[in-house]
């Protein structure tokens, strides 16, 4: 599938004409749940001092006075149950769950989450839904996800439905889906909330967590940096990352910090050396970040690309 890059200034698809709905006057609210870093069953040979942990991950509630939507369903039964309990505490009607990109750790929780919110449905942009469907078949062949999280995932995943509009109404206020393209995978989307001065970025932006580059070679990292520029052009005061440390503030400074991390990784990778050299070099520069296991995965992939 070919994914067309689109910037915030691109013309957006709109839903088919319908009866006019009153526009809300109250700005939308942004609340963020973070599932903490946790251990998992890794079949990989680990480096010296490496511990197999899954990155802390976020799900965001965008809500008005009565209704709300969730951005990303995360991965496991426990993730979904905790998101549901947290979201219900706000007393809003959840009308939909929207997925930022096709990596399974952002949408496999959808089946369980929709049990908690039977009136809601799961949605994603066409390129995101296509990647999610591909991941279902990939897991059937490889058991990648089920081997790492045995007994924690649905036997029959619910793939998000294709969303054929880029404008979502929440209590009469617009939320814009923007196709930025490259994040830690191609075909990534973000959700801009103009009334709240906020943007929910999925894995286009990271916040105090090592960034995943298993699928992002140098050219894709450059495209990723350009995607972050597109996010920055929105001038949002709240920037929610898909992977963020528990308690980390959702500041726009994480945009430049993510770009700096990508550039530093490329600089060190281009010096050559071993996986360990790349890991240790990045830890010297970014050792404050959570989830060094992701750095090891990225470094192994980068060295393998040289072969």
Ordered list of secondary-structure elements with their pairings:
Elements: E1 29-35, E2 38-39, E3 53-54, E4 57-63, E5 67-71, H1 77-88, E6 93-98, H2 110-116, E7 121-124, H3 126-142, H4 144-148, E8 161-162, E9 167-170, E10 173-181, E11 188-193, E12 198-200, E13 206-207, H5 218-232, E14 238-240, E15 243-244, H6 253-269, H7 275-286, H8 292-306
Helix pairs in contact: 1-2, 5-6, 6-7, 7-8
CA(first)-CA(last) distance = 27 Å
CATH-derived topology: Metallo-beta-lactamase, Chain A
Total number of helices: 8
As laid out across the biggest beta sheet, the strand order is 1-4-5-6-7-8
Q: β content, as a range?
A: 15-25%
What percent of the residues sit in helical stretches (DSSP H or I)?
25-40%
Number of strands: 15
Shape: globular
Oligomer: single chain
Second-tier CATH architecture: 4-Layer Sandwich
Structural Rg: 19 Å
| Mean of residue pLDDT values | 93
CATH class: Alpha Beta
The figure for the number of domains is 1
Any idea what the CATH superfamily is called? Ribonuclease Z/Hydroxyacylglutathione hydrolase-like
Instruction: Give me the secondary-structure category.
Output: alpha/beta
